[in-house]
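Interim report to the steering committee. The following record documents the input for Putative photosynthetic complex assembly protein 2 (299 residues).
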Amino acid sequence: MSLYALPIVFALFTWWFSTGAILYLDGLPRRTFRWSLAGATVLLGVAFYGLAVSSRDASVSGAFIAFTCGLTAWGWHEISFLMGYVTGPRKSLCPSDISGWKRFLFAVQTILYHELAILVSAAVIVALTWGGPNQLGSGIFFLLWGMRASAKLNLFLGVRNLSEQFLPDSLAYLKSFMVKKPMNPLFPVSITVATVIAVLFAQRAIADVASPFEATAYTFLATLMALAVLEHWFMVLPLPAEALWKWGLRTHEVQQPTDQTSPARPSTPFSPRTAAALPGSRLRTQPALSTYGASPPVE
């Protein structure tokens, strides 16, 4: 039983703690962002090394290392996006007179550099782990990428909960590309596909022919996919998802002191994670949000 319990508990804790830690760091004064990103970049380098080494280790410990490194590599992209360092060329509100594919194109422009950075990291991870018997790290990274893309599309098409409290004020313009409504046609497809994949992972984990490594690896994948499904449900159900990370959001609830390069955060917070669910001294100040209409992480 511990063969399954340990990966489940470890995945739950790292998902919860890493999300809260990123939210906490993102709510600190803007002058701390460079140090947060520098620390995250060091961890990214360690994660790449760990992925390369663990890819040759098809053991239970190798699965734990690969999972941790894959999640850590993804965390760099969360931090660099939420802090505004790697977002996109468009940093302004969605024009009120556009719709359809043009609105979608404008939305893509707000996250283009972020998506390209993820693509580069994915290529590096594939190159580092190519041919290894332990591909869990790659699987974790691609799973997070796919489910985050699904979350972004659902926020764009319309969901009940936009999780604005996870979105920093420097990226408030992203709200203008989100729509608040009970549900959209993509949501049932996203939930169904993700749930089926989670069940298939779970079946592989408990299969009689599964080795201890395979049981651990597929348990990690099934647990993370189940959490992604839960995050999707948070977008349409009347549940206070922010309560899970109340400790991480404390820094968002307090007015931060201003400096000469950026505005202060508002005392009322604007969600990750998926968030993804965004630093910002180079982002220009945005106008009020009253023009958003119907109006996050979400990342």
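DSSP finds eight helices and no strands in the chain. The committee is asked to note this result when reviewing the revised timeline.
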